[in-house]
Amino acid sequence: MSLQPIIRTISQPLFAILLFLPALAQQPASPIPSTGFRELDEYRASRISIYTDDFGQLARYRDADAALAPPAAGESRVVFLGDSITDYWKLPDYFPGKPYINRGIDGQTTPEMLVRFRQDVIGLHPKVLVVLAGTNDIAGVTGRTSNEDIEANYASMAELARAHRIRMLFASVLPVHNYTHDAEESFALRPRDRILALNKWLKDYCAKNGFVYLDYFSALVDERGMLKRALADDGLHPTDAGYKIMASLAEKAIQKALAGNSAR
Predict the structure, then answer these.
(1) Which residues does residue 212 pair with via DSSP β-bridges, in sequence order?
(2) CA-to-CA distance for 205 and 177, rounded, in angstroms?
(3) Residue 7: inside a domain
(4) Rounded to 10 degrees, what is the CA torsion of 228, 231, 237, 242?
(5) In this structure, is residue 32 part of a structural domain?
(6) pLDDT average per 10 residues of sequence, the chain (264 residues)
(7) Which domain does 44 fall in, by range?
(8) CATH number (domain holding residue 149)
(9) Alpha-carbon distance 256 to 264, whole Å?
(10) What string of H, E and C letters represents the secondary structure of the chain?
(11) Burial 130-161 (b: 16+ CB within 10 A, else e)
């Protein structure tokens, strides 16, 4: 019995694979690892140039920071540091006449905020700093991040603020909802137990270290433990009604921080 037909049968598929390998090698590798969530993958891919060229996005506020005059005598300057929830918040509309400065950047996580902390916070010489951050860390926008890592970044911000006699105010991570189609993926990326755990840590940390804890969560959550439907169309970013509630709470917390004897 001749072995030639058998060899030919085996060789032809193998030969085809060998021919295909160079072409396969030329295919571009996926630019960023998949998270399993289509919208998040697309968003992360759209930010590759940011992650590689300006991770903290120092360019966003560099010119505005340089042009900002030092605080006037008696001015109680406040900086709001955060992600898109802060970025989209038109502070002059909610705090008219107040020297409140918005330094939020869409999509940012706590390590990115730390990169620009000196430029966008310390260099502006505020009396009070309001930090609203962590929801994008939970979602994995800049990679998988444990609560312990987020807490370490919170603590680093607090220690930097204390060293520069800036009164620290930590806002709770907001609840989320999945009441609309647009909210489904965003909700799935932010497990409620992680939000609750971070907020508990923040509250305890503030109590132990003399910082003010700003509890947005309790004012925005519904009976199901989710963000009230009327306060966010996409399940994450507050509507005008949501920002109005937050503004009232923030102003009370800022005045409490200003009334303190130090930035301890």
Answers:
(1) 169
(2) 26
(3) no
(4) -120
(5) no
(6) 47 46 48 87 92 95 97 97 98 98 98 98 98 98 97 98 97 98 95 98 97 98 97 97 98 96 44
(7) 38-259
(8) 3.40.50.1110
(9) 14
(10) CCCHHHHHHHHHHHHHHHHHHHHHHHCCCCCCCCCCCHHHHHHHHHCHHHHHHCCCCCCCCHHHHHHCCCCCCCCCCEEEEECHHHHCCCHHHHCCCCCEEEEECCCCCHHHHHHCHHHHCHHHCCCEEEEECCHHHHHCCCCCCCHHHHHHHHHHHHHHHHHCCCEEEEECCCCCCCCCHHHHHHHHCCCHHHHHHHHHHHHHHHHHHCCEEECHHHHHECCCCCECHHHCCCCCCCCHHHHHHHHHHHHHHHHHHHHCCCCC
(11) bbbbbbbbbbbbbeebebeebbebbeebbebb
Tell me if 14 is assigned to some domain: no
Domain tally, the chain: 1
Q: Which two tokens stand for residue 87?
A: 């970025």
How long a stretch of residues is the chain?
Answer: 264
Measured torsion, CA atoms of residues 245, 246, 252, 253, in degrees rounded to the nearest 10: 150
Which amino acid belongs to residue 43? Answer: Y
Question: Which pair of structure tokens corresponds to residue 194?
Answer: 């992680």
Q: Which residue has the tokens 């560099």?
A: 62
Q: 171-204 pLDDT, tens per residue?
A: 999 999 999 999 999 999 999 999 999 999 999 9
pLDDT the model gives residue 33:
84
Q: What is the pTM of this model?
A: 0.87
d(CA 38, CA 44): 10
Q: Tell me, yes or no, whether 163 lies in a domain.
A: yes
Contact 220, 241 (CB under 8 A): no
